[in-house]
Structure to design on (224 residues):
């Protein structure tokens, strides 16, 4: 009787470990490393897989038919990118470029579909990420429509530093050019330079092995 009970206990499958899945190679998933400024995928590439960022920062940019480029997002560790193929998108709508050395897990769409359907915990995590990003997109639009370029820059820096995310306490940003910040904020490089010097003078930011963001920068966003 005890032997049968032990046998049945041994036959139970172990619970799915999302962290282990996202940090290791396996069926239809591969870990890839990209150096700074290298392209992870380009606008117009086939949507054959989804990437999970294990380490580093990635710039998401779009080029219009007239050749104008706009930075539409900065993604970091714990984020998914290139998920359009899961919704039937045939080609990439944007280009992903490493802002610093980046490590990603490439997951084929078929494998991603399988895990999403089979593992509730993983599916919940992915849905939560997508909802959070949709909220961020709405906030970005409101920010662009109603706030000054100074407030938009302050908010962008706080978001890049993962302000308010207890599980992602990063406060020092990787090397990022003022041109890129200007593209993200929707202003000129000269305006970004002016405000960055102002933030530095007020003690909101400092340059120490990278760009360090002080949480007091939030006062610029909240100030009417």
């Amino acid at each position: 009787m005890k032997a049968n009970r032990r046998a049945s206990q041994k036959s139970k499958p172990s619970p799915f470990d999302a962290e282990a899945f996202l940090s290791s190679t396996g069926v239809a998933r591969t870990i890839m490393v990209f150096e700074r400024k290298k392209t992870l995928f380009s606008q117009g590439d086939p949507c054959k897989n989804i990437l999970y960022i294990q380490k580093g920062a990635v710039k998401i940019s779009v080029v219009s038919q007239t050749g104008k480029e706009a930075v539409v997002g900065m993604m970091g560790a714990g984020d998914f990118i290139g998920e359009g193929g899961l919704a039937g998108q045939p080609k990439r709508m944007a280009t992903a470029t490493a802002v610093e050395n980046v490590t990603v897990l490439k997951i084929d769409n078929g494998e991603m579909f399988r895990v999403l359907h089979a593992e509730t915990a993983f599916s919940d995590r992915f849905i939560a990420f997508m909802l959070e990003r949709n909220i961020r997109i709405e906030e970005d639009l409101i920010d662009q429509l109603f706030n000054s370029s100074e407030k938009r820059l302050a908010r962008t820096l706080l978001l890049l530093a993962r302000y308010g995310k207890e599980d992602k306490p990063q406060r020092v940003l990787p090397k990022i050019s003022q041109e890129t910040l200007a593209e993200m904020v929707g202003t000129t490089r000269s305006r970004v330079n002016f405000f960055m010097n102002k933030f530095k003078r007020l003690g909101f930011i400092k340059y120490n092995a990278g760009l360090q963001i002080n949480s007091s920068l939030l006062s610029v966003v909240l100030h009417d």
